[in-house]
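Chain X:
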Amino acid sequence: MSSTALDPESADHAVDARLAPAKVNLALHVTGLRADGFHTIESLAVFTRFGDRIEAHRADEDRFIVSGRFAGLVPTDETNLILKARDALRRHADPKNAPAVAISLEKNLPVASGIGGGSSDAAAALRALASIWKLDIDEMELAQIGFSLGADLPMCLKAQPLLAHGAGETISTVAKFPALGLVMVNPGVTVATADVFRSLARRDNEVLPPLPDVIDFHSLLDWLEATRNDLEPAAETISPLIGKARAALLRADAAFARMSGSGATCFGLFETGNVAKRAAASIRARHPDWFVAATRSMASEVHEVEYA
């Protein structure tokens, strides 16, 4: 994720600006149900160069401002995950070390759409505030705070190609994973995650197969054909438009198409970014009221990192 560097000698109003990327679950297997109520999953996820934007700076009082295409759907009270993240980090740091901040969100991703928008926003806010408040906090502590807010937060804090296990809190990043050209499509419907999980026909599915030794576009496609999103059938029963979104991607010559997360956003994979852009233009022309975005995913960093 990108951010502005903070000069230790700069004024308190220096801005920390960060991308909150979309999270795309390329595969998602539901493998069980824990005693605490969380479902166990195995998921391969990537993060895109398109997403929301978070900016934060110190202020005389806490403020929260939302703009962007989907601003009208974002709550601005204490139910907002960004504000929950701010408050959780402030409690962890001790309020005297966490003075008032102004946070602004540019909401470019659809709300409740299966691409981790709210979780990614909160993760970006945690990192921005830790920087502004100059907190001595490590990755494990941030991940623990994140998981207390939602199962997707640890993944969104990492924001690079990864495998998630457990309820989503056990993560291993994937080395040498390439950037992918992709198109995200949302047909303008929201699907409640809880409703999708309640509608599952089965909760004890098999785990993901091992990833190929060498991951490129074609070996990844072969691997994906042996995987699923176990939430997709239930979500499509709730909202049949999901199937139409996936079909639109295949009609636009996606090499592979699937729903992400609990829906209703679907993604299509394309061999190059230019092919993805042409496909997005074609889908947008047929469905001008849908959310359609062509982008690229972020490639992995060099070393594999694990934390739980």
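Chain Y:
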Amino acid sequence: MSSDEIGLFGLLRLDARRHRELLGGKVDVSLLRLYMGMLSPRFLPVLLYRFAYACHQLRLSPAAKMFSLLNFLLFGIEIAIACRIGPGLFFPHTHGTVIGAYSIGSNAVIYQGVTIGARDLDFTYDETHRPVLGNDVLLGAGAKVLGGITLGDGVTVASNAVLLMSVPDHCVVGGIPAKILKSRNEVT
């Protein structure tokens, strides 16, 4: 099921549950408690992004841009309103983060100072110029993921890495330019 099929409130509920899980809180709580957790400074940027994306999908461009601008002014995070991001998005910190990916899968963890976007000036918003990130991706502080590349599921990008190549599932990459440092075999 895609994030568009889940709907805005379903995504927010899944995001809130993921936040509680990552922060060590009890996950099985009432809906009221989950929604109260949305007032966290780690969650509000996700909420504003979800509103911006929902408005973009409804072709309410001025409202989408307003939510996006509010996110930038309050939290120093710039997220393209057309970027589709799956449930479970988590920002431990936000300042200086720029997200211009084509799409990001579920359960992404993105630290501060991360840049995800095109390698050059690009006004076409397509996956030939912008990164596509899989599920369970972790981007360390200051990481740069640039160009029309694909990151597989379970990829970890080390802090301050500059990633310019596609990466298969379950790898750790780091360096400038980033290279695969370790490949983890996942047992399912």
